[in-house]
């Protein structure tokens, strides 16, 4: 009788252990609801990565490898294009050279965008001053200082004219635009080059100093620098040139002189 009771107790103990084991296993596999799901929202994705995984959610390895391969192919094609001196490839070489050497028309793009959408591109520099609406023709007009006097005309050198001013007078921009160059130029000395909305450029040379910065957008009448001294030192003078495309044009054709 005792052995029968002991066997029953052992069976009960085994069943209890089995039940506890199964319960623990089920509890470990339960997916508890997050706070978002509890209130009716979808569960937010987690970007936490385990140590050693090395994959970033914003980094797509396939796209990166494609860009790398495309860049290598373009470089290889350019190398073959310039190493191969075949006549049939000459137009392609000329096109690549012209594209790489030609300056980007910041002022023209800014003017077009402002005309189409009413506001310059945020990535292009523009004046923070008054936002008055003016006609394109008025913006592109050049204005010569009233006291200016021509010392050397365009026919003397085929590039520029020389304008006489007062000693240490401020040289002002004759039209608004973007400063494309500010530094020394051969034959011009200290020079400021302004790119305008119609893709033309105005050059101001022989400056004693420069008061503007590269890629600065300036209004008409902004001081660019100080005129250099004349040969006798009694007055000031500066060079002025207008360039359209690859050619200099006579400023007298653009600016009215009395």
UniProtKB/TrEMBL annotation:
Lineage: superkingdom: Bacteria
Keywords: Membrane, Transmembrane, Transmembrane helix
M23ase beta-sheet core domain residues: 161-251
Spans traversing the lipid bilayer: 64-82
GO terms assigned for molecular function: metalloendopeptidase activity
Membrane found in the keyword field: yes
InterPro entries: Cell_wall_metabolism_enzyme (IPR050570), Dup_hybrid_motif (IPR011055), M23ase_b-sheet_dom (IPR016047)
Pfam families, alphabetized: Peptidase_M23
Record protein name field: Stage IV sporulation protein FA
Lineage: Bacteria, Bacillati, Bacillota, Bacilli, Bacillales
């Amino acid at each position: 009788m005792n052995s029968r009771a002991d066997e029953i107790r052992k069976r009960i103990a085994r069943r209890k252990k089995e039940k506890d084991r199964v319960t623990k296993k089920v509890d470990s596999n339960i997916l508890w609801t997050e706070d978002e799901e509890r209130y009716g929202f979808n569960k937010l994705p987690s970007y936490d990565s385990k140590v050693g995984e090395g994959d970033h959610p914003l980094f797509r390895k396939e796209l990166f490898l494609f860009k790398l391969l495309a860049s290598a192919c373009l470089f290889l094609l350019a190398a073959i294009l310039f190493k191969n001196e075949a006549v049939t490839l000459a137009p392609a070489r000329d096109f690549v050279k012209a594209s790489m050497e030609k300056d980007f028309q910041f002022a023209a793009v800014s003017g077009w965008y402002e005309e189409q959408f009413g506001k310059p591109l945020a990535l292009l520099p523009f004046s923070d001053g008054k936002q008055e609406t003016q006609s394109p023709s008025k913006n592109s007009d050049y204005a010569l200082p009233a006291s200016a006097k021509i010392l050397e005309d365009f026919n003397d050198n085929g590039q520029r004219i020389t304008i006489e001013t007062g000693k240490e007078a401020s040289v002002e921009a004759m039209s608004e635009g973007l400063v494309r160059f500010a530094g020394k130029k051969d034959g011009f000395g200290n020079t400021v080059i302004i790119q305008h909305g119609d893709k033309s450029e105005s050059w101001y040379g022989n400056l004693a100093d420069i008061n503007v910065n590269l890629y600065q957008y300036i209004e008409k009448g902004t001081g660019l620098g100080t005129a250099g001294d004349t040969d006798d030192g009694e007055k000031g003078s500066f060079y002025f040139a207008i360039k359209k495309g690859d050619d200099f044009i006579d400023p007298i054709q653009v600016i009215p002189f009395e």
